[in-house]
Design a protein that fits this description.
It is a single chain. Helix 5 crosses helix 7. The protein has one domain: Phenylalanine Hydroxylase (Orthogonal Bundle), CATH 1.10.800.10. It is of the alpha/beta class and about 290 residues long. The two termini are about 30 Å apart. Strands 4-3-6-5 form a 4-stranded mixed sheet. Strands 1-2 form a two-stranded parallel sheet. Strand 5, helix 11 and strand 6 form a beta-alpha-beta unit. Helices cover about 45% and strands about 10% of the residues.
Length: about 290
């Protein structure tokens, strides 16, 4: 059963402002909350070595996101805003699409401020502060990535048709949430949905089951995805300097092509796909 995020955050609907931004209430975190963060951090930090892009660790270090407890958004934002113009704002749970797009367009990343209970240590249905801050925020220190996420917010505000918004959501899902990237050391993770999941961290890079396909915006916008299991397909970015162009002209051209082509299942392979192979450094026994 899904727990209403407003209830679990301790706020009622009438207390939520129009932009959904609330105080982090850093002083209200308990010792148990900080310990949950520390346990999650230590497990995932160790697992990500050799599996995630170097820019992620650079972001963690630069922002002071560490194992010693839940980060204070005020301290983190002083560094982040100076680096790329971004800031993290606390929200009580998932926010409506229009609110989400507006925040991203204005370089505000909405992050849930509550943390999972100990009995949810391995899986939660709604993203908590660990997923949002540990998974997403470090790469906002990277200029190319930060610019792409802001451009995604601007793009979301330009579209109203539900089918177009679904196509746009796939660009975000298969990059910001579940993207892989090519590096000199081999394939690496950069998507937050993988980075905050121990199981998918190993699966995404080492399992022979999923497809790994070179990122193409039209192909991605046609491809459905799974929200309740590991991904059946991962799209691979050639580098942060090659993030898709989401300015109006190029994005609308790609969107127009996607509208004309059939939708694809999450595990589909088509003739035009360029498969990206694992190399020997990544062929470790899956955990």
């Amino acid at each position: 059963m899904t727990i209403d995020p407003f209830i679990r955050s301790g706020l009622q609907a009438h207390q939520i402002p129009a932009d959904y931004v609330v105080d982090q209430r850093f002083q209200d975190y308990s010792a148990a909350d900080h310990e949950t963060w520390s346990r999650l951090y230590r497990r995932q930090f160790d697992l990500l070595h050799g599996r995630i892009c170097d820019e992620f660790f650079a972001g963690l270090a630069g922002l002071g996101i560490a194992a010693d407890g839940i980060p204070d958004f005020r301290e983190m934002n002083r560094v982040l805003k100076a680096a790329t113009g971004w800031e993290v704002v606390a929200v009580p749970g998932l926010v409506p699409d229009r609110v989400f797009f507006t925040h991203l367009a204005q370089r505000r990343f909405p992050a849930g401020f509550w943390i999972r209970r100990p009995d949810e240590f391995d899986y939660i249905e709604e993203p908590d502060i660990f997923h949002d801050v540990f998974g997403h925020v470090p790469l906002l220190m990277n200029r190319a990535y930060a610019d792409f996420v802001a451009a995604y917010g601007e793009a979301g505000l330009r579209y109203a048709d539900p089918a177009d918004l679904s196509r746009l959501a796939r660009l975000y899902w298969y990059s910001v949430e579940f993207g892989l990237i090519e590096t000199k050391a081999g394939l690496r993770i950069f998507g937050a949905g993988i980075a905050s999941s121990p199981g998918e961290t190993v699966y995404a890079l080492e399992s022979e089951k999923p497809g790994r396909i070179a990122f193409d915006p039209v192909r991605v916008m046609r491809t459905h995805y799974k929200i309740d299991d590991f991904q059946q397909t991962y799209f691979v970015m050639p580098g942060f300097d090659f993030m898709p162009d989401l300015t109006p002209g190029p994005l609308e051209a790609a969107m127009a092509k996607a509208r004309m082509l059939p939708e694809l299942a999450a595990d589909a392979l088509i003739t035009e796909d360029r498969r990206v192979a694992l190399d020997d450094r990544q062929r470790r026994p899956a955990a």
